[in-house]
Amino acid sequence: MGESTPLAARGEPSEFVRRSWQAHPDQLASLRAEVRRWLTPLPFTEEAEDDLVLAVNEAASNSVEHAYTSPVADNTVELTFWTEPRAICVEVVDHGLWRVPSDQSNGRGRGIQIMQRLVAFVLIHHDNRGTRVLLRQPLPRARPNRSAVSAG
């Protein structure tokens, strides 16, 4: 259940990786560590990396906590990670049921708002096959090379 399938080889940054975890709270730390590993070769600041990891964790936590009515070993949370020329994308997928968020404030239920504050683009789609959360974050622009900047 835990094999990564990167397209890149010989230590190059991965452009596409798909991985699946059991939908259980004990798996979230491993999921976060894997996302961090995927982000390592990319030019994010530590804060931007933390934000993206937290947003992915929120989406995965929602899957673990809300998607499946009864916990069984076949319940999964799947992550697909890919890079685009100017952005990074992470899709979080479960195969459970969408539950309409409660109107009652119990100090919880802010995961979607958190994701929307942390990542530039959040798209959530749910149907009878489960829920898909797409997180898309622009890559930071490269700083100009100081030697290439003219003095005049």
TrEMBL record:
Report the superkingdom from the record: Bacteria
InterPro entries for this protein: Anti-sigma-factor_SerPK (IPR050267), HATPase_C_sf (IPR036890), HATPase_dom (IPR003594)
Q: Which UniProt keywords apply?
A: ATP-binding, Kinase, Nucleotide-binding, Serine/threonine-protein kinase, Transferase
What is a single molecular function from GO for this protein?
Answer: protein histidine kinase activity
The record's listing under SUPFAM superfamilies reads:
ATPase domain of HSP90 chaperone/DNA topoisomerase II/histidine kinase (SSF55874)
UniProt enzyme class: transferase
Give the protein's recorded name.
Answer: ATP-binding protein
The source organism is Pseudonocardia charpentierae
